[in-house]
C-alpha cells in the first residue's frame, strides 16, 4: 500500500521542520522545565478570543509577520509609543489596521501569574499565530521558542521592511529576499491573505485613481471592482469600513490563489503575482493543491519566526508587552 497524500505531506513537513530547527538558536519545547503550561495557556486565550471574534485569527497571524519583518521577531510591534518616539504600532502600516494586542496582553497576564518573568512577548506572538492558523483550518506546526524581547520600536523602520500593497512582483521578491526568502516562499506567504479584511485605503486607488488617472485598474475583474466601489465610496477614509480579503475570510483555504487567477486579488501586490511566469505558476499550483500549500505555508511561518531573533542574554523578558522593563 502506498502512503496517502496527507501522510506524504506530513512526512515532508516534519523533515523540513527538523532541518530548519537544526540551524536555529530556538528550540521546540524551550519552556518545558520553566513554564510547561505556556502553550496551553496561550492556546486557551487565543481560542477564547477567536470564538468571540473570528477575525482575530487573521489579526494574530499578521501580527507575527509585522513583528518579524521589522527588527526581527522581538515583539517590537507590541511596544507603545513614548513621549520621545513613535512606535511601529502607530505607523500607517499598523494603525488602525493591526489588531489583537489585547489577546497577547491577557495571555501575558496569566503567564506572569504562573511563571513570572519567564515567557517572552515575542514567543507569545509566535504561539498565538500558530494557534490562529490552526483554528482557521490551516496546518498546525511546532513553534521553536526562546526568543527574547527587544527594547526599541520605531515607526520610521516600517518603510523598507514591510511591503506596501502597491508593490509589484519584483519589489515583493526583493523585499522577501532581503529577509532570506525565496520567491516561491514569498508567494506561499502571500497566501496569508486568505484570511482577514482590509480598509478601503489599501486598494481604493485601483478603483478610482489607477496610475494617477481617474480610471479603474483594467486588471481588476469589473464585477468585483463594481462591488468594491459600492463598499468603498470614492474618497472615503472611514476607518470603520472594511472589506473581506476573500469570500471565506475566516478559513485558511487556497481561495486566495483562486481569486487571483480570477482577477479578484484585492491588492495590486496580490494581482502582481500573475505578472511573472514563475510566480503565476506558483499561484496555479497553490490553487490546485491546497494541502501542499498549507504545508509550505506552515514551514514558511516557522522560518519567518526565526528572523533576526534575540536569544540567550540579549534583550529581555518584558513584564508588560506594551512597555520595556525599567
Ligand atoms: C506580500 C506582501 C504583503 C503585502 C503587500 C501586504 C499588505 C497588506 C495590507 C495592505 C493589508 C490590509 C491593511 C488594511 O488596510 O486594513 C493586509 C492585511 C493582512 N495581511 Fe498582509 N501583506 C503582505 C503579506 C502578508 C503576509 C506574509 C501575511 C501573513 C503570513 C499577511 C497577513 C495579512 C492578514 C491576515 C491581513 C488581514 C488582517 C486583519 O484582518 O486584521 N500579509 N496586508
Ligand atoms: C492618485 O494617485 C497618485 C499616484 O498614482 C497619487 O499621487 C495621488 O495622491 C492619488 N490621488 C488620490 C486622491 O488618492
Automatic annotation (TrEMBL):
Binds 2 calcium ions per subunit. Its cofactor is Ca(2+); heme b. This is Peroxidase. GO terms for cellular component: extracellular region. Belongs to the peroxidase family. Classical plant (class III) peroxidase subfamily. Belongs to the peroxidase family. Ascorbate peroxidase subfamily. Heme b binds at residue 193. Its EC number is 1.11.1.7.
